[in-house]
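User: Could you go from structure to sequence for me? I need the amino acid at each position, not a summary. Structure tokens:
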């Protein structure tokens, strides 16, 4: 198949892929458990060679070392969703945050983040050379890949192939570079709700009627309401 030839022509080692990042690059990675963690760790190891690199992500589920203050001036983290790791490391001064409405994600990528490099984790290609963005990459991967001048795919055999529209995939011909690294996906553990959170949930539950549609988020209050 022709896509297999294209795949092989773009396949490089993770370390080679990390070497494609240059000073002043604005790098955006897939959010949450779809972050290409092996590639990000390889980029982190090069921090002394880099200056003024911004790494944008959302609700990261891996304890990336570059969030520490020792990386200030080399690699900075910009988050668009504060998760446990971002909150824990925020005080070290190397994490910026942008609060926005999720429906404006495409606008934010094009007009504010403006990535020069998109690094994404994907599933192995299907019979037509399409690689799935996995569980959470559809959040903004398509627009990030459209805007960035360089798109680096990290193929992970543990990333699920998630069906969807064309915006849920990238074909091998549209990747600039491809590397391979298998690893378990990051998980956000369910912390037990506190007594206070159960009390808050009890007040909310009083106002819920049968047949309604309820949107809940992440955290103790949401868990107490949902369970």
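Assistant: Here is the amino acid at each position, in order:
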């Amino acid at each position: 198949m022709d896509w297999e030839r294209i795949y092989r022509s773009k396949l490089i080692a993770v370390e080679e892929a990390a070497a494609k990042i240059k000073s002043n690059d604005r790098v955006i990675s897939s959010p949450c458990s779809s972050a290409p963690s092996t590639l990000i760790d390889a980029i982190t190891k090069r921090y002394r060679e880099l200056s003024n690199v911004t790494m944008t992500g959302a609700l990261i589920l891996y304890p990336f070392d570059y969030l520490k203050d020792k990386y200030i001036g080399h690699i900075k983290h910009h988050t668009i969703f504060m998760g446990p790791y971002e909150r824990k490391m925020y005080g070290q001064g190397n994490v910026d945050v942008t609060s926005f409405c999720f429906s404006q994600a495409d606008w934010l990528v094009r007009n504010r983040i403006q990535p020069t490099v998109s690094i994404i984790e994907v599933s192995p290609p299907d019979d037509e050379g399409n690689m799935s963005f996995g569980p959470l990459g559809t959040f903004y991967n398509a627009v990030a890949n459209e805007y960035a001048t360089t798109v680096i795919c990290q193929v992970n055999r543990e990333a699920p192939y998630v069906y969807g529209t064309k915006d849920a995939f990238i074909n091998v011909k549209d990747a600039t570079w491809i590397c391979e690294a298998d690893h378990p996906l990051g998980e956000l553990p369910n912390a037990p709700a506190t007594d206070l959170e159960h009390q808050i949930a009890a007040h909310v539950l009083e106002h819920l009627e049968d047949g309604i549609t309820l949107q809940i988020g992440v955290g103790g209050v949401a868990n107490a309401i949902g369970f």
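One structural detail worth keeping in mind: The CA atoms of residues 151 and 175 lie 5 Å apart.
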